Amino acid sequence: MNYINSYAHIKNNSVYVNGEQVFTYDKNATVNTFLSEAYHAINLVYPKFHKMDTLCKLGLLCAEFALQNNHFINEHHLQKTAIILSNSSSSLETDKLYQHSISDKNNYFPSPTIFVYTLPNIIIGELAIKHKITGENAFFITEKFDANLLVDYCETILNHNATSAICGWVELNENSYEAIIFLVEKKYHPDKNSIFKPLNQQIVTQIYNQT
Amino acid sequence: MVFASHNNIISGLGFSTEENYQAVLNSKLAVKKTTLPFSKEEFCLATIDQTLLNNRFSNIDDPKHFTKLEQLSILSINEVITNSGINPSDEKTVLIYSTTKGNIDLLEKEKTSNIDKKRAYLFEFANVLKSHFNFKNNPIVLSNACISGILAIIIAKRFIEKGTYNHVIVCGGDIISEFTLSGFKSFNALSNEACRPFDKARVGINLGEAVSSILITNHKSLSKPYETQIISGFSANDANHISGPSRTGDGLLQCLNQLNITSTNHIGFISAHGTATVFNDEMESVAIERAHLTDIPVNSLKGYYGHTLGAAGVLETILSLESLKNQTLISSAGFKNKGVTGKISVIEQFEKKSFQSFIKTAAGFGGCNAAAFFSKI
Q1: N or C: less crowded end of chain B, CB within 10 Å?
Q2: Does B140 contact A149 at a Cβ distance shorter than 8 Å?
Q3: Interface check B241 vs A, CB under 8 A
Q4: Which of A34, A41, A39 is nearest to A49 (CA)?
Q5: What's the average model confidence in pLDDT over B8-19?
Q6: Chain B contact for A98, CB < 8 A?
């Protein structure tokens, strides 16, 4: 049996942890302003954050909120923690920025620092570095949040070489953004902040729709 | 058991696996010095001729309505479906598409075509393939940098073992665009000459374009072409740097250690990632030595095809299956003098050899690594 131990959901300039709103900001603020405020709200000190593109900032912060006060990812689990993420727009917002930098032949400045963020799995890399997690990786692209795919795939790896997983959805497009990250584990890990729900399609869909 | 079966490779060396394997046996390189329409500079890369492609594709549909990557993918998947006889509308069959950038060329402003720009979204691109073949299930797109191809094969095996699917067509593809070319150039990662994996004189990669497809299945009756199963496969992250491999090869070592290899006796070769960058090849050699796999000869196919990104893991697995079927080691094009510190022996010439199995490795941006183990049944 696999369990959801905690989750964080970020959308409409608000952050929810295990279903409760923990931070909210001016609904008219830009995504970057909001993420910068949320970074301060969680008292994160991580200078690398400021170098990341918006998509990675969103993913990193969402995981930070989900992991906050949760101790199940300890050193014994780092090799056996998987990071499985998904979205519908890949890294297209950063892709467009990069494409713009090479669109004018007289003003041609391809930047390696932007180019490196033109892959969606860079979020996985950033999370792995931040938390020293070295387990399985996968980044899926689906039209909408796909609870079936995420739960099905998490189950396959939790049946094999993973004991826990950070999994979810980190989406940014020209009109909106949304991130939801679940911490799932093979066994129930007693922790005062744990929500302890079984990992299955119905529960994941219900959680996704409730906030 | 999960089998690696019917397949197809489309590259600058041909439109079928057979053509590609024969070309490689004759030491033909897909990479060559080329000037592209968007650049006055000459680059060493492997492209697929658009006129040749249009001619092939017009037997199936009107090329005007499809991007280059869509045409290549449809041709490639079509061959796997035709040769294997599987039914895409079956509820236990799915397509996993491995790509880094998909239809990224649709972002180019000057590009005027009647193709909807929304197909730059990878799920929209995959929907084109879904509706062309009438797949019942939504395709699963995997975009995990340069390990995407081999990781897609590993994921296919896992879904089949879990019982979610019986047949998975894994298709990997990427085209050469101004986007990827300028990006790798900005990283100083490109070689102006044919790339030289594991060689002392290696200076960087050649980009290549290719699309490759393979059927992964649990039906033994479909395993005929190779009678080869996927024994195991894993991915791992270095947790070290987003754009450079770990110097100590930790992530790849973690993958290799999990393959659970008890004896190297019957393993013919390791098909390495071998991009010909200074850091990747060094890292792989260190990981192979640390995994105690130094007895096994190593090759990289990047000297023939360049780095085909999302296609690489699929293409290199298919040619490794041909190598196993024909009991022939493929030489590592571009290699003369060993230029890595890890104790490895690089395959310098084609050689007949009796063997049972091989290992495929890969590594990519975002610190990701993967390895898989294939063996005769």
Answers
A1: C
A2: yes
A3: yes
A4: A39
A5: 98
A6: yes
